[in-house]
Amino acid sequence: MKVLVAPDKFKGSLTAAEVASAVASGLADVHPGLAVRVLPVADGGDGTVDAAVAAGFRRVRVPARGPTGEPVTASYAVRGDTAVVELAEASGLHRLPGALAPLTATSAGTGDVLAAAVRAGCRRIVLGVGGSACTDGGAGMLAALGARLLDAAGRDLPPGGEALSRLASVDLSRLDLSGVDIELASDVDNPLYGPHGAASVYGPQKGASPGDVETLDAALRHWASQVGPEFAAKPGAGAAGGVGFAAMAVLGARMRPGIELLLDLLGFDAALSGAALVITGEGSLDRQTLSGKAPAGVARAAAARGIPCVAVSGRCRLSSGELAEAGISAAYALTDLEPDPARCMAEAAPLLRRLAHRVAIDYFSLSR
Q1: Which is the CATH superfamily of the domain at 55-259?
Q2: Could you tell me which of 224, 114, 239 has the C-alpha nearest to residue 189?
Q3: What would the pLDDT profile of 163-183 be if each residue is shown by its tens digit?
Q4: pTM summary value
Q5: Whole-angstrom distance, CA of residue 87 vs CA of residue 134
Q6: Domain with CATH 3.90.1510.10 in the chain
Q7: CATH architecture of 2-39+267-367
Q8: Residue 310 — very low, low, confident or very high, per pLDDT cuts 50/70/90?
Q9: Mean pLDDT, rounded, for 232-242
Q10: How many whole angstroms separate alpha carbon 360 and alpha carbon 26?
Q11: How far apart are CA 14 and CA 7, in angstroms?
């Protein structure tokens, strides 16, 4: 009997690979002869490159700029001429050297990584656009790829979203990604600007005050008027502080739900072959899970093959009805074993291994 263990990360505690390993170990404790296949997954946010590497892609490390311009080493994953680039690798919140920088943080590092992948010969690029520190409409990414963003005096704009309000012209003559196919992996459907846009919805998470949000939203409106106003309202234009907009408007990128795209890329359908049970999970099973997060995507794919799916998590805030709606037949949370959230995070791996004991006992007793 085969079990496929395909979780996302437990943010702040364990990577997806560490979650999968702990679950696999717990299953083996109870049923040593069980065939367990681990396939860590991601939905385009933090951990996307790691998931690709676990599935057989090769990690490539390159120099890039962080959100405030400091040098960092970022990674992308490659197999053949396909690259998986994770925006958070260079431009994520965790890359900020200190305080948040809502007005000046840049996506330039993502452009650095994209440029490196293209120079290496990659012709298909999957760009995961979650977890960004910036709200610059993707301007920094485009500048790193060769675009020039100029003010009225012909000077290059400084980095960050606030500066976009001073944009007078855009020169794309040195930006050439012809022959490169870019797919955006995201579960965000926000437009670029407005009450549901990048600044209004996600700006506060990146440190933007109400005044900053107004400034950034106006700057993004101006940016769109110069670059491609017809793309501003497209679902996903507001992803990663507007990187989705720049990728679609200038780079010709196509948006796909992150988990669907990543499951295809990781060979998930083939991994399902022969499985009697799928175990997925993430740190918190909640309403966001139902909106295209990794566990919901995994459960949907398993259901399409008639394979039951259960989930493990740090905590579960979904009712049994909501879980069933997502295709998850049962959920097991670390808080079932340890009510203290701090201890759950600090001792996530051993607790998860114990939790997998319950999964194995419950499932195999029911299947006899």
Answers
A1: Glycerate kinase, domain 2 (3.90.1510.10)
A2: 239
A3: 999 999 999 999 999 999 999
A4: 0.92
A5: 11
A6: 55-259
A7: 3-Layer(aba) Sandwich (3.40)
A8: very high
A9: 97
A10: 8
A11: 11
